[in-house]
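Support request from a user on the community tier.

User writes: "When I paste my structure tokens into the form, the page sometimes reloads and wipes my input. The last time it worked, I copied everything first. Here is what I submitted, just in case something in the input itself triggers the reload:"
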């Protein structure tokens, strides 16, 4: 226990150590997080009336971000599957960065749910009336928290054994890795079922929603990891090969193609059949009765997705400059498509035929930026701690002059 307490202390200490760029980045994130906290405190005092949500459109920017981030958490699975299932050694040294991202992102998901509830004490109602297994919401609670605990255990154990100079025992983490793979698929599937199961919202009543969620998640997650790994490689001694980045590029490439194909299938079904429930799709893509707040959003997302796919299919995207551009376009395009383009249109028009448009307020935007900044703060700290530990620069032996009990030659944490 003393050694573990020392490990935690070293992690806390090193998170405050860096150059001027690190301090500048952390200062900016801290300021934005505090601004978001201040905006949330105002919302807590005055209620959800400070947001742009109404009785007609009861889910907005908060749930849009939640939906997107649940998919981003699947980035861990897209690194784990090639390494542990297909034995792809190109990603062997970077797999833990996906798991650390999953931890930070799930924390952000829970925060977005909390701010959307209006009052945190409403969580108690969920605990008192868990309503398992009938309620899909309880399944989502189990999926999110279970995935968070799995990735916390895997990352914590691997980092601690690397710090102690011990080879990690596969018994204590490999079974959890395979459980986490299944769990990563389940969190997005269960989240999709939350929407699909709402019969009063025809825009979501499609069996293709869950596969679309998974395809977009397996594109946006690895795209974010590609950008992260280049920052790690540039500002640390951790080894990140071009082969690892190009392997992730292939994953993003295939996932983006599938995502666009499923989107085309959904659009064809909606407009070709011209059913009575096509009004929400018309509002999203072309506007309805002179209301078209989301039309620029969705067409921007489609343009970004198509440009990203085109770049990924071209040999030019083997160059990191073009690959980075494709990743940024994919991340932004999927955020719009799965966020504002999926959540809001389902409420327009209402079952009574009302058309009430939703526009997020400055208060909502500040709260969202604060949560994103806090999540990036957590992820930056996690990466800052893990890089020197995994590289063997921060170990118990180097700090205190003697190896940990039962120590052996350090093995890489991704083994």
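"...and here is what came back when it finally went through:"
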């Amino acid at each position: 226990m003393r050694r573990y307490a020392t490990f935690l202390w070293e992690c806390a200490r090193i998170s405050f150590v860096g150059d001027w760029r690190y301090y500048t980045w952390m200062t900016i994130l801290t300021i934005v997080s505090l601004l978001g906290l201040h905006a949330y405190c105002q919302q807590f005092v005055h209620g959800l009336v400070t947001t742009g949500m109404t009785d007609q459109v009861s889910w907005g920017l908060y749930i849009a971000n939640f939906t997107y981030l649940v998919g981003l958490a699947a980035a861990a699975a897209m690194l784990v599957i090639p390494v542990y299932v297909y034995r792809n050694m190109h990603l062997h040294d970077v797999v833990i960065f996906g798991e650390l991202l999953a931890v930070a992102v799930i924390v952000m998901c829970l925060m977005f749910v909390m701010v959307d509830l209006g009052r945190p004490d409403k969580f108690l109602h969920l605990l008192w009336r868990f309503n398992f297994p009938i309620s899909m919401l309880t399944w989502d609670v189990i999926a999110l928290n279970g995935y968070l605990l799995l990735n916390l255990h895997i990352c914590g154990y691997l980092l601690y054994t690397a710090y102690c100079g011990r080879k990690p025992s596969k018994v204590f983490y490999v079974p959890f890795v395979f459980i986490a793979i299944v769990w990563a698929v389940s969190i997005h599937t269960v989240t999709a079922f939350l929407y699909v199961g709402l019969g009063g919202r025809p825009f979501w009543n499609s069996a293709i929603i869950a596969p679309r969620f998974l395809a977009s998640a397996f594109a946006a997650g690895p795209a974010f990891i590609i950008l992260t790994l280049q920052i790690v490689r540039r500002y640390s001694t951790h080894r990140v090969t071009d082969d690892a980045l190009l392997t992730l590029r292939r994953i993003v490439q295939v996932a983006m193609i599938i995502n666009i194909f499923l989107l085309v299938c959904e659009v064809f079904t909606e407009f070709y059949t011209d059913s009575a429930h096509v009004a929400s799709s018309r509002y999203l893509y072309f506007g309805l009765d002179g209301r078209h707040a989301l039309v620029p959003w969705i067409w921007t997302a489609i343009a970004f997705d198509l440009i990203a796919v085109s770049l990924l299919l071209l040999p030019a995207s083997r160059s990191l400059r073009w690959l980075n551009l494709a990743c940024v376009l994919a991340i932004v395009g999927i955020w719009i498509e799965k966020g504002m383009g999926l959540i809001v249109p389902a409420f327009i028009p209402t079952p009574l035929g009302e058309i009430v448009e939703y526009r997020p307020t400055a208060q909502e935007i500040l709260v969202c930026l604060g949560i994103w900044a806090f999540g990036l703060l957590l992820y930056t700290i996690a990466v800052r701690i893990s890089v020197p530990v995994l590289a063997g620069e921060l170990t118990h032996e180097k700090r205190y002059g003697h190896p940990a009990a039962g120590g052996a030659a350090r093995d890489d944490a991704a083994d």
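Agent notes: The reload is a front-end session timeout and is unrelated to the input. Confidence is low (pLDDT under 50) at residues 405-415. The first helix runs from residue 2 to 14. Escalated to web team.
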